[in-house]
Amino acid sequence: MSISTQSTDGRWSSRWLFVLAAAGSAVGLGNIWKFPYIAGENGGGAFVLIYLVCVACVGAPIMISEVMLGRKGRASPINTMRKLTQAAGASSRWTFLGWMGVLAGILILSYYAVIAGWALNYIWLTASGTFDSASAQVATTTFDQLQQDPLTMMGWHGVFMLITIWIVARGVSRGLETAIKWFMPLLFVLLLVLLAYSMNSGGFAQGWAFMFDFNWSVIGPETWLIAMGQAFFTLSLGMGTMMVYGSYVPEDSHIGSTVLTIVALDTFVAVAAGLAIFPLVFVNGLEVGQGPGLMFVTLPLAFGQLPMGAVFGTVFFVLVSFAAITSAISLTEPAIAYVVEEYNAKRSRVAISLGVFCWILGLGTVFSFNIWADVKPLLGLNFFELVDQLSQNIMLPLGGLLIALFTVWALPQTIVREQLEVGSDRVMLCWRVVGGVIAPLGVAAVFIYTLLPLFTG
Question: What whole-number distance in Å separates Cα of residue 457 and Cα of residue 453?
Fold first, then answer.
């Protein structure tokens, strides 16, 4: 069966725009705080080396698989899987992969936009001098008050969704490409500005040691599982994003080298963010913290104690917001592409409808921090925790696992050779071992490790 090589939504105008778009999808809120923190807590430089091995053996092969499927199918994840299963003579049940990716993206966007709305709010708070010479109590109280105020959270959640939908409604060339051309270079510039500021803060040596001193004594099987999980999740795998972005990739782009470039950019941002953040934390004698506590309490407090802290604190939250927007627009694309293809619908109308739906769904997350905080419908989890567990810890790894298995063991190898431009049987054997055995086993291990505590209490 022949497969159409034309995407209904257009193409990236260059390989580098695809690289920036995919890197923008991968670089998100988690890169800013999660990677640096888990690196420092799990062996520093030793963890970074293990992480890079896991990226090479787990993250990169699955990303290559997703991009390859997308470029061959030239459609939304659902229709791409439909086309390719027919071409492979495989069971139509594999189409479930596309549906699961689209649903995961919608669920993640619904709560991701709420957290990103916090970052937008903090641009205003920091610029207005709220944290200038503020005490730890002021920083903590400010964050607590935001979480306890559903109306404020709903408003910023809505602002973030409006920005995201306005961009994606304009299509690939006028919307996605234009946003990427501006946001990604600015993100890198802002990150370098913060890094230079941090290097002169007086705590750079301590921050460097926290992230890169080799501490092999803490390395164990759990460290490898943490590294594999980070390698998988940081690259936006398993949700159909890379598949639909891959459908816009020009035919003359080499998938392998392109994916490695994306991985390198994603890792650079994570490392640079850590080197920009932790010196400021240490020089003020603050706790390293984790998650929202680091980004919305500790860092505003640190910036508030430093010369020109309000200026650079504002730059930091602009950086965080840019990273969030580039990730959010990628989360919408699988669902929008499918509806536009399937029903010949106007893209702008589909984008607005999706935005309204995600905003309404996101209200469950908003209320999980205040009026629904004690409502725990399943497994002792509130609405936000339940949606997070379902999407991040079940749907994404399951999707990534099945994508790897389908690409290596169900897709005709002639298609793989054509898309990866591989002629050597030895290279194909390596691809089958890494992509079809090592990567799925790695994701399966993370899957089990993540879910076990949920059901064992």
Answer: 6
Among 86, 98, 92, which residue's Cα sits nearest to residue 415? 86
The structure tokens 């005490």 sit at 135
Tokens 């807590």, located at residue: 41
Burial class from Cβ neighbours inside 10 Å (0-12, 13-18, 19+) for residue 216 reads: exposed
Three-state DSSP state, 376: coil
Cα gap 20→4, rounded to integer Å: 26
Q: Mean pLDDT by 10-residue block, N- to C-terminus, for the chain (457 residues)? A: 48 82 84 81 89 91 94 93 92 93 94 95 95 89 95 97 93 80 88 89 88 88 88 86 89 87 89 88 76 82 86 92 91 93 93 96 97 90 92 90 94 90 89 95 90 72
Which tokens in the block code for residue 291?
Answer: 């998650």
Q: Domains of the chain by range and CATH?
A: 15-456 (1.20.1740)
Alpha helices in 91-220 (DSSP H): 96-127, 136-147, 150-169, 171, 178-199, 204-212
